[in-house]
Write a structure and sequence with these properties.
Growth Hormone, Chain: A; cytokine receptor binding; cytokine; two-stranded antiparallel ribbon; disulfide bond; 7% strand; IL-15/IL-21_fam; IL-15_fish
Length: 177
């Protein structure tokens, strides 16, 4: 029974987030000698776990610089966006718990992309929003316990932009400290 935990094969990978050249180091150790017979199962389990860790790591890769850049892009897009008469899901900062900030930002970015598409806005500031959404915000974020976007109230574009800017300012301060 002493052989049970003796082997420690190590798998080292460095996944990167989409659009991010910084490698994220992950070390995963397999310690069960009894599982050696099922190599295929181990390999698939490794890929599954590492994929999950990579997604989770990417979810946390939003920086204060990113939120500052989005604020700049929003300022430049404001005139074009305010023409929209769309009603959008807009959680207030009071509605969003700390662990749901990234999920809330994802909701805002999806709504904003919809407005950009509907208003046919094509410029580098619209590209800034699209690029941020695709490279910094993963499709799946750790949203356990967070309400879906549709749970928040619908607001006009002015309130939507105010609340989004408030969230971005709050996140910028928190991420820069």
């Amino acid at each position: 029974m002493t052989d049970f935990m003796t082997a420690l094969p190590v798998i080292l990978v460095q996944p990167t987030c989409p659009g991010d050249q910084r490698a994220k180091g992950v070390q995963f150790q397999l310690t069960c000698n009894l599982c050696r017979e099922s190599h295929k199962t181990q390999v698939w389990l490794c890929f599954f776990v590492l994929s999950f860790l990579s997604t989770y790591t990417c979810a946390a890769s939003v920086s204060g610089k990113d939120t500052e850049d989005i604020q700049t892009c929003l300022k430049e897009l404001k005139g074009n966006i305010e023409k929209s008469d769309a009603m959008l899901y807009a959680p207030s900062s009071n509605d969003v718990e700390e662990n749901c900030k990234i999920m809330s930002l994802r909701c805002y970015m999806l709504e904003l992309r919809m407005v950009i598409d509907e208003e046919n806005i094509f410029n580098e500031f619209a590209d800034c929003i699209v690029d941020f959404n695709e490279s910094r915000l993963p499709e799946v974020v750790n949203s356990v316990g967070c309400p879906p976007c549709e749970a928040y109230s619908l607001k006009n574009i002015t309130i939507f932009l105010d609340r989004l800017n408030n969230l971005l300012k709050e996140m910028t301060v928190r991420l820069n400290t």
